[in-house]
Amino acid sequence: MQNNFILQVENITKKFGNLVAVNNVSLNVVQGEIVGLIGPNGAGKTTLFNVISGLFPPERGRVIFKGKDVTRVVPHVICKMGMSRTFQVTRAFASMSVEDAIRVGAYNRHTNKETLEIVNEVIQFCDLGKLRRRKCADLGLAALRRVELARALATEPDLLLLDEAGAGLNPSELGNLMDILKEVNREKGITLFVVEHVMQMVMGLCQRIFVLDAGELIATGAPEEISQNPRVIEAYLGKRAIR
Ligand SMILES: Nc1ncnc2c1ncn2[C@@H]1O[C@H](COP(=O)(O)OP(=O)(O)OP(=O)(O)O)[C@@H](O)[C@H]1O
Ligand SMILES: [Mg+2]
């Protein structure tokens, strides 16, 4: 990397037919940061994550990860390069046990022998020891979110994208998740990029926040700046009660 940007998003535009879901968005994420992406429903947050992680090729613009252009690189290759993500809806692993679901993540980057060690380590880290043999379908939301996080961590990422990991959690579950994420950042040195509606989590976790509205980046700043920005208040906070 020539600079300390782990991720550079340059003029990304993504359309669905006539709908411009992401409109000429540019942003940078510094190695080691925790940054947030907020905005009203349909603002384009998940779509931008899908472009960054290689799921959707954009119409315009470039995604640079660790100094390399990954704009048209497929997701599993981007994952091998050290970018992982969690998904907004966690249903994919319903029939699997917790440890098998996490092993799927580890296989992405490791051989059979190495996976057990990594799986054990992330199970500990995400406080899933007692649940490791349970079926994912039998877990509550908070535990499922930790499985999803553990699965992403098992790929040993340098950059982790989290899409609404805090949604639907009660305050104590949210505090627990935030503690784990702070440790992920501090102890493992993983850069975190979080999409989130839960303001407590965004404000408590992020050093910088990007705001999207109708596909456009309308503000970037520290949490206190963002919460006082008139354009943000009008576009986002004004329309929606802060949870
Ligand atoms: N695969 C798709 N095909 C067509 N339109 C899509 C697709 N995915 C998203 N969209 C549209 O693109 C726009 C942005 O959606 P997106 O899911 O990125 O928003 P979001 O900011 O993640 O919203 P939310 O906060 O509700 O998760 C919306 O108008 C949505 O309907
Ligand atoms: Mg979304």
Notes on the protein architecture:
This protein has 243 residues and is α/β, with parallel strands linked by helices. It has two domains: 1-82 and 159-243, Rossmann fold (3-Layer(aba) Sandwich); 88-156, no CATH class. 37% of the residues lie in helices and 26% in strands. The chain contains nine helices and ten strands. The strands form two sheets. It has a six-stranded mixed β-sheet with strand order 6-7-8-3-9-10, sandwiched between helices. A four-stranded antiparallel β-sheet has the order 2-1-4-5, with helices on one face. Helix 3 packs across helix 4 (112-125). The protein is globular, with a radius of gyration of 17 Å. The model has no long low-confidence stretch (mean pLDDT 91). Magnesium ion (MG) is lined by residues 45-46, 88.
CATH homology superfamily name of the largest domain: P-loop containing nucleotide triphosphate hydrolases
User: What is the gyration radius calculated from CA atoms?
Assistant: 17 Å
Provide the CATH topology of the largest domain.
Answer: Rossmann fold
Structural class: alpha/beta
What strand order characterises the main sheet?
Answer: 6-7-8-3-9-10
* Uncertain segments: none
Number of helical runs?
Answer: 9
- How many beta strands in the DSSP annotation? 10
- Average pLDDT value? 91
- Overall tally of structural domains: 2
The level 1 CATH classification of the largest domain is Alpha Beta
